[in-house]
Amino acid sequence: MDSMSSARLCTPLITSTAATASQASTRRLFSTSRFHLGRQRSPPPCRASLPMTTFCTAAADPGSAASRLLSVGLPWHAEFMPRLPSGNGRISRLSAVVLGEALAAEENDLIFPSPEFSRDALVSSPEQYRKMYKRSIEDPAGFWSEIAAQFYWKKRWSPDVYSENIDVRKGPVKIEWFKGGITNICYNALDRNIEAGNGDKVALYWEGNEPGQDGQLTYAQLLDQVCQLANYLKHVGVSKGDAVVIYLPMLMELPIAMLACARIGAVHSVVFAGFSAESLAQRFIDCKPKVVICSNAVSRGAKVINLKAIVDNALAESANNGIAVDLCLVYENQSTMKKEDTKWQDGRDILWQEVVPQFPTKCPVEWVDAEDPLFLLYTSGSTGKPKGVLHTTGGYMVYTATTFKYAFDYKPSDVYWCTADCGWITGHSYVTYGPLLNGATVLVFEGAPSYPDPGRCWDIVDKYKVTLFYTAPTLVRALMREGDEYVTRYSRKSLRVLGSVGEPINPSAWRWFYNVVGDSRCPISDTWWQTETGGFLITPIPGAWPQKPGSATFPFFGVQPVIVDEKGNELEGECSGYLCIKNSWPGIFRSLYGDHERYETTYFKPFAGYYFSGDGCRRDKDGYHWLTGRVDDVINVSGHRIGTAEIESALVSHPHCAESAVVGVDHPVKGQGIYAFVTLVDGVDYTDEVRKSLILAVRTQIGAFAAPDKIHWAPGLPKTRSGKIMRRILRKIASKQLDELGDISTLAEPSVVNQLIEFTDR
């Protein structure tokens, strides 16, 4: 189907082993200021030109698969991947585990794919990755043009392929990819796959909140329903460039609504169904939608949320601020709430089931320029005016499809499940657009992953024979806390590749995910990216290189990550600092809606000439990237700068700790103190002995300066439904600023906040 299919990609399998050398390296790094390590480079060479020579010793019998991959003393990377895209040092000693042959454990450093996995993978060797990556950096126009040509374009883009200025010193930031190319992402996701003979293939499986609630749509059926909604939207006056706010739970109607907007050139703005009326009204006021699409209610676990009541209040608040929305299309979620139990405003509220099915199942495509807007997605969790991240059509389409394909080693027979909600960027790129552009079968889940019990995920995996499973580290840790028996009672034999998204995954959770969930045979794609990036930037590619638990490893094609110090000097080799990206890539966002100045100030002015991610990153002696969390999550303790993620990882390594979240608080002597919220494994009592043992674990692994000043027992942590920990709330609790908690409506369990407050002095 594409020109790169001959370059068979294989998923890199990360070892579930904690590299002893890496831990020692971590301790060394923390003994000095975390953002002054490494050598400055001037001028910086192309990242792809930095040599890497490593030596591996196979921890396997001579006849094993490991031996077939490695030879004792063989310069493995020197032979297969002589040049990696970031500064790398020699590996003094490595032991290897071949996928499917042994449990990953502390004494192992790396995991390699089995020969069987590599044989069928899309990228089957480090050398293949190196060649593809090298070309993507040296000839980005040619590399991405070949991939873009796999999609349907009504008109081809201009010869320049892309133009960019990301250096604020040279003028306004402006990025364009495939400018002049005319296409439509809905057509490419649906019509193109149907024309290829996949009309009868299942596009969407749907699993409801209660076991036994399910449904499915083939690609042909999905297109019919998308066209019906698109025709309705056109009928009520929605046209190219108009905004439509979508406030739906994880029903099949959510991706249907997104695709319907894209088909007619409307700009969709999906808002997580659970945001408060105030937050929703802010988005109405900012983007001024023609139509709001919502559901009357949703069930999440045992809890029922009246979504229509939230929308009613938001519409009233928006109208009071001068922005009136005249039409609200309401989908009746019959399993949760009937229409007769839903408050209704005649003339404004229209029932989806009464009008949309009356419209034709054929709808002409609105062809759009590659740089025409596709969607707005407002960032959440911070105070002040929300940021409307603006993504355009062509580059985003090409990038999300390509990253999905390679990061998950996608095969046409795969059944893919991402647990994220479409209210977040993961649901846009890797529930809807990326998978469907590849013709994948996607599972959409409405419920809570631990309802009615913590085995629900694996019950669903067995029911639908899920092969690719993508979730958040917080969910992994929550399920890990419940014990192995909820996992092992299910087969999970269909699983082929696992994935992690949302925040750095600590090594102990990685090992559990790999050893228990994946039966020590499934690679883990531990992806790093952001709402603003559109798709993965640093990620394992299954089969292309050995992995380390907790490391996002190496950059995706076309991405040039650099680590800089406070002055913007690039650091080489083993170092820690601020993660930036050189140059643009097709999926990068183009602006913040209505506020391009804020766009430049936030992302391009901190380090002129780079995109600043806002994240800290450590590159180890082997060149692997370890994300350390948001830079504003770095705590300065008596002059020592340390990322909260490292402290959390040390805490979770303790056998009694199920989960932790660390924030900084004001300290009269040290400047900032370390405040740790800790959730214990079931059955472990809150005692001073456990508290002291946890502190000792941090002192031992990192150093005395990183020891928490306060351990706050946490029966649970405040998380969004997608599993993201709301650290803003934790900071307020730690600082005793309880009157400034702000909006907690997006939390999966708002009651957790009161529990944490009650435990403050325990």
UniProtKB/TrEMBL annotation:
Q: Which reaction does it catalyse?
A: acetate + ATP + CoA = acetyl-CoA + AMP + diphosphate; (E)-4-coumarate + ATP + CoA = (E)-4-coumaroyl-CoA + AMP + diphosphate
EC main group: ligase
InterPro entries under this entry? Ac_CoA_lig, ACAS_N, AMP-bd_C, AMP-binding_CS, AMP-dep_synth/lig_dom
Q: Does the keyword Nucleotide-binding apply?
A: yes
Answer whether the UniProt record assigns the keyword Nucleotide-binding to this protein: yes
| Segments forming domain AMP-dependent synthetase/ligase | 196-584
Q: What is this protein called?
A: Acetyl-coenzyme A synthetase
Q: Which organism is it from?
A: Zingiber officinale
